[in-house]
Write a structure and sequence with these properties.
The protein is 28% helix and 10% strand. By secondary structure, the chain is of the alpha+beta class. Residues 20-32 have a biased composition (Basic residues).
Length: 104
């Protein structure tokens, strides 16, 4: 920054001295193009593409079962015990007893 001294204009008014930034001066140099915006756009596109493709639900080896697929609770319990991680939707309250509303 530089300091510009006060001066008189042609119409007789006085302009008080003030600080002037050298950056404000116009330059005849051609401006360099900033490709940062294009780069960021491409990066965001690839990141979102990777996120959406990796978040897709993969096919599970578990069969989809509901309590209505079983006649008794003991039948559901046997099926549940074969793979508790796969059929945890049968056990709503996480007490390892699936389909408690079915008759024994």
């Amino acid at each position: 920054m530089s300091y510009r001294r006060g001066y008189h204009k042609k119409d007789g008014t006085y302009v008080q001295g003030h600080f002037v930034s050298k950056k404000n001066k116009k330059s005849n140099k051609p401006k360099k193009q900033n490709n940062l915006g294009c780069f960021l756009t491409v990066c965001i596109f690839f990141v979102t593409t990777i996120l959406f493709t990796s978040c897709e639900e993969t096919e599970s080896s578990c069969e989809k079962k509901k309590c209505s697929d079983f006649k008794t609770q003991s039948e559901a319990q046997t099926f549940f015990n074969s793979n508790p991680n796969c059929y945890r939707n049968l056990d709503i309250d996480d007490d390892n007893i699936p389909c408690e509303n079915l008759p024994d």
